[in-house]
Amino acid sequence: MENLQSLLHGFTIAVTVPHLTLMVIGVLLGILVGVLPGLGAPNGVSLLLPLTFGMQPVSAIILLSSMYWGALFGGSVTSILFNIPGEPSSVATTFDGYPMARDGRPTTALATAFGSAAFGALVGVILITFLASWVAQVALAFGPPEYFAVYFLAFASFVGMGGAAPIKTVVALAIGFAIAAIGIDTVSGSVRLTMGIDELVKGVSFVVAVMGLFGIGELLIAVEEEFQARAVSSRVDWKEVFRALGRLPQHGIALLRSAAIGCWMGITPGGPTAASFMSYGIAKRFSRNGARFGTGEAEGIVAPETADHAAGTSALLPMLSLGIPGSATAAVMMGGLMIWGLNPGPMLFVDQKDFVWGLIASMYVGNIVAVALVLLTVPVFAALMRIPFAVIAPLIVIICVVGAYSVSNSYLDVVLMLGFGVVGYLFKKLHYPLAPLVLAIVIGDKAEDAFRQAMLMSKGSLGIFFANRLVTTLVLAGMTLLLLPLALQIVRLLRKSDEAAGEKVRII
Amino acid sequence: MKITSKLLLSTTAFMLAGVLPATAAWQPQKPIEFVATAGPGGGTDNLARAVQSIVTKYKLTDQPIVVVNKGGGSGAEGYVYGKASAGDPYKVIFGTSNAWQQPLVSKVAFNYTDLTPIAAMAQDEFLLWVKQDAPYKTAGDFLKAAAATEFKMGGAQSKDTDEVLTRMIEKAARIKFTYIPFKSGAEAAVQLAGGHIDAHVNNPSESLGQWRGSTQRPLCAFSPKRLPQGPKVTTSEGWSDVPTCVEQGLAISQYEQPRTVWLPGKVSPEQAAFYVDLLKKVQATPEWKDYIEKTSQVDTFLTGAAFDNFIKQDLEHVKQVAGEQGWLVK
Question: The complex's ipTM?
Answer without folding.
Answer: 0.84
